[in-house]
Amino acid sequence: MATYDFDIGIIGGGSAGLTVAAGAAQLGAKTLLIEKETELGGDCLHFGCVPSKTLIKTAKVYRQMKNAKAYGLPDADVKPVEFPRIAKRIRNVIEAILQHDSAERFCGLGARVETGNPVFVDEHGVSLDGVPFTAKNWVIATGSSPVIPPIAGLDKSSCMTNRDLFTLEKLPRSMIIIGGGPIGIEMCQAFNRLGTDVTVVEMGGAILPKEDKDMADLVMGVLLAEGIRFRLNATVLRAVRAGAQHEVMIKIGDTTEALCADTILVAAGRRANLAGLGLEGIGVDFDGRGLKLDDRLRTTQKHIYGAGDVTGGYQFTHAAGYEGGIVVSNAVFRLPRKVDYTYLPWCTFTDPELASIGMNEKAASDAGIRYSVWSDNFRDNDRSLAEGETTGKIKMILDETEKPIGVQILGPRAGDLLAEWVAVFNGKTSLSTLASAMHPYPTLGEINKKVAGTFLSTKIFSEPVKKGLKLFFNLRGRACEPAAQPPQ
Ligand SMILES: Cc1cc2nc3c(=O)[nH]c(=O)nc-3n(C[C@H](O)[C@H](O)[C@H](O)COP(=O)(O)OP(=O)(O)OC[C@H]3O[C@@H](n4cnc5c(N)ncnc54)[C@H](O)[C@@H]3O)c2cc1C
Fold first, then answer.
1. Among 171, 254, 299, 439, which one is least packed by beta carbons within 10 Å?
2. How far away, in angstroms, is 14 Cα from ligand 1 center?
3. Which tens digits make up the pLDDT trace of 394-440?
4. Which atom of ligand 1 lies nearest, measured to the CA of 270?
5. Distance between CA atoms of residues 435 and 437, nearest Å
6. Residue 391, ligand 1, Cβ within 6 A
7. 205 within 8 A of 295, measured Cβ to Cβ
8. Confidence (pTM)
């Protein structure tokens, strides 16, 4: 039997790779982790979730300072932001988390960490800048990179991506964001709140195209009210330098328009990082989206797995972590486990946030499911009123057997509110259990209980139930009739 240097080798030290490395090493597998950058952590830590959420919080506080009056406070004299101070705060947060993702910590868990650019030389071996390493199993977890669309005048030198955003030396006075997906939309609000004049250009008819249109439109309404401009159904024709500014020519229908700004941010999709790994030479298939995988995350070479953004699937840190766990089961435990994304949650961290689990109306219609929608508004939640954050609603979707198949929440801390639904769906908790469980008052979470209760009350307070109770317990009915409304 062939012998290898390692039981498992992992390429890429981001969310997916680190999950596999920590799991495999702690289970006793001889583990190698190869990362091309000098620091572990990947996009999420350095250029994605962590810096973006830190920036979003700073922008929210800044807006609240400016809106002090709305909370009964004196008008505040708020000065313009100095971006390097914000960038420093971002760096501090990254550094705090980095302790947890350090090579030393992984060494402590038992994994060897190497830095460099690996290339597969055969099905079990890589050359790491000339040094050979072999492993029985491999995991490709190299993540994804922003795509700059092939538009005349648009290239690395003329636009920014998420890799440039969080270390700016100066807050841009104006910004054109190409792409109305989650990254573009989160960043448009954050930069606009900090003082940048922002225009979003989106090729589709709505922002956040994966979401139901009513929810996406509500988000857009909030952003419009904050002063962000949108150009929907827009094709970007070209970008040109106009002195210190950039001019972006767009076309909507038959009309062309020139937009001008200091900076262009491209947030128009991501491409799996697969180039240069030598996969073509060892029979690992991939296409423009990512690796070709079966439902146990095995590539076309069964001992080589894929996890994270490189799969071309759901591009979230928690999806990467989940997939990392599936790989550990299959490759280390030898327990055949398949991926199941039925209850994959996600959240777009606008203010208010838009969080989702299971099917939305769009997905249910596409799947040919007949569904009903139950909803409740944050303006009817006491805590929302107290906090002055009343925009948004919850939507609960039931299939025709009245089983919940999805929930979307647009509202304050929607991502955290969704946690209860994560437990409900995964624990197969009934709606009556949720509706009858005590929730602390006043909390935003009461909206979860309330929407379940709204559905159940149509059953409990139905005419047949009322008739039955009247008959069995001799209930005598209404004690008060509302006054008749005067004719209009
Ligand atoms: C602006 C932004 C905001 C985001 N916000 C969120 C959020 O709020 N919530 C959320 O869930 N997701 C968010 N994401 C998505 C999230 O960052 C990714 O889904 C996640 O990082 C994917 O993890 P990964 O392990 O697949 O890739 P990564 O974390 O990118 O890790 C891949 C690693 O592989 C390394 N690598 C690449 N090529 C090679 C090679 N050839 N050899 C060796 N190493 C290599 C890279 O350097 C990197 O360290 C955001 C993304 C962006 C861009």
1. 254
2. 6
3. 999 999 999 999 999 999 999 999 999 999 999 999 999 999 999 99
4. 53
5. 6
6. no
7. no
8. 0.96
